[in-house]
Amino acid sequence: MRKSIKYGVSAALALSCIVSAAAAAENVKIAFIDPLSGPFASTGSNGLKQYEFAADELVNKNGGVLDGRKFEIVAFDNKVSPKESLIQLQVAIDQGIHYVVQGNSSGVANALTEAIEKHNRRNPDNRVLFLNYAAVDPVLTNDKCNFWHFRLDANSDIKMDALTDVIAQNPDIKKVYIIGQDYGFGKAVAAAAVSMLGEKRPDIEIVGNELHPIGKVKDFTPYARKVVSSGADAVITGNWGSDMLGLGKAVIENGFKGPIYTYYAAGSGITAAFGESGKGSIRLISEGQVNPPYSDRAKEVYDGFRARYPEGNIDMPRIFNTVDMLANAINEAGTADDVVAVAHALEGMTYESMWGGKVYIRPEDHQAIQDINVLVHTNEGITYDYDNSGYGVLLEHKVEMASADSPTTCKMKRP
Question: Which residues does UniProt call coiled coil (predicted)?
Answer without folding.
Answer: none
